[in-house]
């Protein structure tokens, strides 16, 4: 059977992922920047905290087939969605963990080379605990869709003494069909902050 995404490059179209109403999904254009920010090596261990639909989890698993991707999601139905998407794309190097971050961190497999935090209610303690678990020279990447989250992440990065910090805001538009017309649909602006642990 032909793989759902037979290409070596990332950028899976959003429509290929199984989705649930109300469950967040990183848009393809945002995923490309996130994957670039993670700087994963072939055998990397990635913790995807708040994995949602599992789009980053799937793309990372396809890019790093010898790596280990750990998707953390607090809701059982959403974790099942991630497992379904793993099956759709034929990835076998993903562990889906149902748990609340950061409470579940001690039970997660492997020391992470990279941690992605996609949202959360109380970001400062979450980022501090993630930083503690991150391997030396590892990468911490966090997303913010509002200024409060951006401020919390920025302040946390300063407190943790994150090095080589990069901040990117995604944006732009994507051509889509609406009836018999083609329109430009805006991409949701997202701040992506990343840096390294020394």
Describe the 3D structure.
This protein is α/β, with parallel strands linked by helices and 198 residues long. The chain is built from five helices and nine strands, in the order αβαβαββαβαββββ. The protein has helices spanning 28-38, 55-63, 76-89, 123-133, 147-160; strands at 45-49, 68-73, 94-98, 114-118, 139-144, 163-169, 173-178, 181-186, 191-196. Strands 3-2-1-4-5-9-6 form a seven-stranded mixed beta sheet, sandwiched between helices. Strands 7-8 form a two-stranded antiparallel sheet. Helix 2 packs parallel to helix 3 (76-89) and helix 4 (123-133) packs parallel to helix 5. The longest helix is centred in the middle third of the chain and has 14 residues, at 76-89.
Top keywords for this entry?
alpha/beta, seven-stranded mixed sheet, Rossmann fold, about 30% helix, about 200 residues, globular, 9 strands, two-stranded antiparallel sheet
The name of the CATH topology is Rossmann fold
Please trace the helix and strand order, writing H or E for each element. HEHEHEEHEHEEEE
> What does the oligomeric state look like here?
single chain
Number of helices: 5
Radius of gyration: 16 Å
Largest sheet: 7 strands, mixed
Q: Strands of the biggest beta sheet: in what spatial order?
A: 3-2-1-4-5-9-6
Summed over residues and divided by their number, the pLDDT gives a mean of: 96
Content-based structural category: alpha/beta
User: What is the percentage of strand-forming residues?
Assistant: 25-35%
Q: What is the class in the CATH system?
A: Alpha Beta
**CATH superfamily grouping:** Vaccinia Virus protein VP39
Q: What overall form do the CA principal axes indicate?
A: globular
Query: Number of folding domains?
Result: 1
The strand count comes to 9
CATH architecture: 3-Layer(aba) Sandwich
